[in-house]
Amino acid sequence: MMFGFGAMIEKLKKDPKRIVLTEGTDPRILEAASRLLASSFLTPVLLGNKDKVWAAAEEAGYNIRGAEIIDPEDYDKFEEMVEEFCEIRKSKGMTPEQARKILVQANYFGTMLVKMGVVDCLIGGATYSTADTVRPALQIIKTKPGNSIVSSCFILVRPSATGENEVLAMADCAINIKPTDEELVEICEETVGCAKVFGIDPKVAFLSYSTLGSGKGEDVDKMRSAAAKAKAKMPDVPIAGELQFDAAVSPRVARTKCPGSEVAGYANTFIFPDINSGNLGYKIAQRMGNFEAYGPILLGLNAQINDLSRGCNAIEVYSMAIITASLS
Ligand SMILES: CC(C)(COP(=O)(O)OP(=O)(O)OC[C@H]1O[C@@H](n2cnc3c(N)ncnc32)[C@H](O)[C@@H]1OP(=O)(O)O)[C@@H](O)C(=O)NCCC(=O)NCCS
Questions:
Q1: H-helix or E-strand containing 68?
Q2: Are 258 and 243 in contact (CB under 8 A)?
Q3: Measured in angstroms, how far is the CA atom of residue 278 from the centroid of ligand 1?
Q4: 134 C-alpha vs ligand 1 centroid, how far in Å?
Q5: DSSP of 193-213, one letter per residue?
Q6: How does pLDDT run across 114-157, given as a tens digit for each residue?
Q7: What's the number of domains the chain is made of?
Q8: Tell me, what's the pLDDT at 163?
Q9: Average pLDDT over residues 264-283
């Protein structure tokens, strides 16, 4: 299966987008911005003090000629933004004075640019934590109608010599710490939708330390219940659970532990019981299984906002910019 960057770029060429990059002086961001500026399908908007952004680009040796740079401390629509933010956070008693202090921070300012329609989407987090990127999105962009939570998934890609890349989806490895069975059903629905965008034909495993009742415990019950509810909600999607990871991916183990399942042995979309298992699981695949990891891709928000890992490189920033824009 081919991982569809080419298809995403073609989609953006027909409908170009604007993406805000909140950390305008970071060399990795500047390198990705210079690559995007050289293309015509995605316009980067950098945040920061203009002189500092230009100086950082010059020092790092990246050409950002023609880049749009917005300085939160010198923005002509700042008061309009303050007013809109106070309205959004009215129930929290937000005052204009508090709002001005919050909105000069690039993560909040950039998220408000998305909310006000100045840009289509955002990536940030090359220098700050997931929580600091995600919190403004939760507060300002909010959960889309019909959903009860924002969650996330990772897309994992293992290049192969034959060109048939292996592509998997894993969730929720980054946001919800201990989701309930109902929340896991929502995470599954959103992840199935995202997996399809990446060319995956989803076969979903709800993971556990137990396979169909072989082990006992609260989390086993939770995963079995979530799998049953997800199957009832999405009858057209192959879903199984609860499954151990070996039963989910090894046809030989599946034949012994759960014969007859259309998912077991062939799962490509994995729903983890909690953030501990999910976060560890995707990192094991990435660091020891030679998979490239794209994400966390936030699911269930009213606009596309995505978080970068603090260990990211410029290629990953460029890739996440394309993924974020093409999902928006
Ligand atoms: C996502 C996360 C940052 C939210 O934490 P927080 O900001 O402390 O959460 P709070 O409970 O204060 O909620 C802040 C707002 O977000 C909302 N919110 C929190 N979690 C949410 C979710 N999963 N979906 C939708 N909204 C959510 C709250 O309702 C609240 O809204 P309000 O301010 O309008 O009332 C938290 O769940 C977290 O830290 N997750 C783990 C992140 C992480 O470390 N990942 C590993 C590295 S990738």
A1: strand 68-70
A2: yes
A3: 17
A4: 7
A5: HHHHHTT----EEEE-SSSTT
A6: 999 999 999 999 998 889 999 999 999 999 999 999 999 999 99
A7: 2
A8: 72
A9: 97
Give the separation between CA 85 and CA 174, rounded to whole angstroms: 26
Query: Which atom in ligand 1 lies closest to the alpha carbon of residue 135?
Result: 7
DSSP letter, residue 301: B
Same domain for 96 and 62, yes or no, is yes
Q: What is the CA(197)–ligand 1 centre distance, in A?
A: 26
Ligand 1 centroid – CA 193 distance (Å): 22
Question: Two tokens at 114?
Answer: 């998305």
Q: How many CB atoms lie within 10 A of CB 283?
A: 15
> Which residue CA neighbors atom 35 of ligand 1 most closely?
139
pLDDT at 1: 38
Domain CATH number, residue 213:
3.40.50.10750
What is the domain extent for residue 42?
5-142+301-327
d(CA 135, ligand 1 centre) in Å: 6
Residue 228: its pLDDT value, please? 98
Closest residue by Cα to residue 189 from 271, 134, 268, 278:
271
197 & 157 share domain: yes
Residue whose Cα lies nearest atom 14 of ligand 1: it is 135
Residues lining ligand 1, judged by CB closer than 6 Å?
130-131, 134-135, 138-139, 143, 149-150, 174-177, 279, 296
Task: Specify the DSSP element, H or E, that contains 314.
Answer: helix 314-327
Q: Which residue has the higher pLDDT, 91 or 162?
A: 91
The pLDDT > 90 percentage for the chain reads: 89
Residues 282 and 157 in one domain: yes
Give me the residue label for tokens 């995600």. 134
